[in-house]
Amino acid sequence: MDRTLAADLARLPELLDATRGAAADALASLDARPVVPAAGKPHDPEPLPEHATGTDTALAAFRDRWEPRLSASAGPRYLGFVTGGATPAALAGDWLTAVHDQNSNSALDGGGQDLERETVGWLRDLFGLTAAHSGTFVSGATMSNTTGLAIAREWLGERLGVSPAEDGAAALGPVRVLSGAPHSSIAKALSVLGLGRNSLVRVPTLPGREAVDPAALERALAGTPGPAVVVANAGTVNTVDFDDLRAIEALRERHDFWLHTDAAFGAFAALAPEHAHLVDGLDASDSVCVDLHKWLNVPYDSAVQFTRRRDLQARVFQNSAAYLGPLGAHPDLVHLTPENSHRLRALAAWFTLRAYGRQGHREIVERDITCARALGAALEADPAFTLLAPVRLNVVCFTLAEAPTPERLTALREAVAAEVFVTPTVYGGTAAVRAAFSNWRTTQADVRRAAEALGAAAREIA
């Protein structure tokens, strides 16, 4: 063994203590650090070290060279995209995921996949899904949507008497995928799956909404020859709008379609009694996407996908090799996702669910919703801003009241980046900004700091 590597092994407890200290320092400074550090000149890449110098040296180099450039995305005022943090229990689980280093895909070494199945069962219960849905962990919402639509592709083949998994997507002929306000990952998934971005048909939404118009959807289905795929939204990115899942389900009485629901963060509405009606009917979906590194507050990368047709899922993703078990009635996880290598992502989710339960995660969801409403109210009361949509759940979509050009909004975002991070969008043809609340640390004090920073910056650029 390399002498330095052997020395690190002998000192492993000490090195883990040093790493723990660095992690504790980073987390303790979240409130004071710039949320997004000012952009500086990129580092010139250093050459690969020729000789071993050990973990101590690597840790010191990281803290000096890279840590100051990292954002405080684990903190309470990182309101860009839809980004959670990592609860204390989730952080512990993620550390132990690396410690135990499981490839949890095979019954030949089955502890990891059994833990994943237990965790999936807890999540299924959390979101109000029945046992008709089976689930697996994947890397994020994009992979969850891709997996769900891959199963939908095989369902289309089943209806047409072919198997895209065996014969290719071309065997299907033209395919129509209907949606009102699909997330960008849907078109990406269709490209990956060989169905093509042009197979996505955007159906009119309700006036002033991002929710699909059920009557328009029925007309689109009536004009679709053969079976189709419908992608419903349970929480759109810009305004957290929800399609009427019950109304869409009712269309199945007259039309043949696979229903995939993108509930990346909207599924968490099920935890809050005031908002649970928004996901009424979610269980009727044939496949469901939920992103866990958003509102479950587990570290990147983690998501789950659910489906009612595990048989079709295994047909798509089965991996035939002598060293793997047969499919059987309960396929190993290696047969259910694109990944042969599959870290034990479920452990971080298991830890946070085991530690805080339904009530603890309900409190996070309800507090973030309250914070979003408070920021929305503060911006609505400030003449410098215009709310572009009601605050339905955890996202505030707003713009400048005067001259809301992309350039002025970029100036606004950059002016406040040290205090609060928000991301750009376009809503209804208007350049806008989104603030998304999904971090377990965020409080009303953070809302006040964000509102004050935004207000001061708007007056500066006026």
From TrEMBL:
Keywords: Aminotransferase, Decarboxylase, Lyase, Pyridoxal phosphate, Transferase. Pfam families: Pyridoxal_deC. Its cofactor is pyridoxal 5'-phosphate. One of its GO terms (molecular function) is transaminase activity. It comes from the Bacteria. Belongs to the group II decarboxylase family. PANTHER family: GROUP II PYRIDOXAL-5-PHOSPHATE DECARBOXYLASE, MIP05841P. This is Aspartate aminotransferase family protein. It comes from Streptomyces nojiriensis. The lineage of its organism: Bacteria, Bacillati, Actinomycetota, Actinomycetes, Kitasatosporales.
